[in-house]
Amino acid sequence: MGHELRWGLIGASTIAHEWMIDAIRAQPGNAVAAVLSGDRARGEAYAAKHGIAKSCTSLDALLADPGIDAVYISTINELHATQAIAAANAGKHVLCEKPLAMTLDDAHAIVDACRRAGVVLGTNHHLRNAATHLALRQLVRDGAIGRPLYARVFHAVHLPEHLQGWRIAQPSAGAGVILDITVHDVDTLRFILDAEPVEAVAMTPPPSLASEGVDDGVMAVLRFDNDVLVQLHDAFTVAYAGTGIEIHGTAGSLIGRDVMTQRPVGEVIVRDATGERTVPVVHHNLYERSLARFNAAVMSRGVEQPAATGEDGVRSLAAALAVRQAVRSGERTRVQAGL
Ligand code: NDP
């Protein structure tokens, strides 16, 4: 029999609806077997809409199903840790959304539980799967800009109305732009620069869309362990800025335009003493690549790695928490992933 991976969706979410169900089904031998929702009627409607045979309201029941090999967790952030640890203990492979958890202790507990159970753990940081970011990483590795000195990330967007729920109003669920977007920036920078964030300073404006006490915009500066200084601008409230990333080095600059996005779009430009050129990239679906890498990790019994591992999820969370702490304290704050 060929490779089979039967998925249980933990969370009847927007991201699964918009991207992940299709991405799972695009993998040979993969199927969506069940969906878990806290609300029976919503879960049943979601299952019917997506042609999923089974919907349930009990995590234990979903995890007891021997017909499920792996779970994709895309609930609100506060639930990730409990659900991921339970899934690992039930022997299911785990692909978990970012942020991996709301605290570092919980994120470590997820990694430990998956290691103990011998199951694959991936964090769904989609951006490092983009053809543009893969090209940027390769250009840095090839020395196209000499030694990197600075990076800037432009990730200020307008949060679509249908996502303006818990993200802007419910701190206990893991609301805020830092847990939502800054984690992605950090993961992408770690991937491109092959370096780790060390410390952060940051400020937020008073919220204009989110509830009092919830960050809906942030500007931060992080120092990485290769001495690259990184500037981040993330927001839920900026409709027309466009997204991008820039890496500036001793011999040139890399410009990624429209690349901090879920869609397979954007361009990569190199600017140096010889002028400016666009680097050809062949776009592909970011989420399908994430799933393909997860499948490879399962099939190879852990010899291959998911695109972003559990440890990657711990590190991006540690940096996001340092940014948040820097905002709250007004002080330069160390990133301590504890790995
Ligand atoms: P949603 O708000 O769509 O879903 C989260 C949970 O909220 C669901 O599990 C569901 O609970 C409940 N819910 C959803 N819609 C409704 C509704 N209409 N009425 C009542 N409850 C509802 O979250 P997202 O899909 O935006 O995000 C889920 C996770 O995925 C988060 O951790 C987020 O950070 C991450 N994410 C990652 C992205 C990426 O590209 N990597 C992109 C977007 C999100 P129940 O399951 O109990 O029904």
UniProtKB/TrEMBL annotation:
> What region holds the GFO/IDH/MocA-like oxidoreductase domain?
134-254
Q: Which Gene3D superfamilies match?
A: Dihydrodipicolinate Reductase, domain 2, NAD(P)-binding Rossmann-like Domain
> Which keywords, in A-to-Z order, does the entry hold?
Oxidoreductase
Q: Which residues form the Gfo/Idh/MocA-like oxidoreductase N-terminal domain?
A: 5-125
Q: Which SUPFAM superfamilies match?
A: Glyceraldehyde-3-phosphate dehydrogenase-like, C-terminal domain, NAD(P)-binding Rossmann-fold domains
Q: Which Pfam families match?
A: GFO_IDH_MocA, GFO_IDH_MocA_C3
Q: What is this protein called?
A: Gfo/Idh/MocA family oxidoreductase
Could you tell me which species this protein originates from? Paraburkholderia dipogonis
From the broadest rank down, the organism's phylogenetic lineage runs:
Bacteria, Pseudomonadati, Pseudomonadota, Betaproteobacteria, Burkholderiales
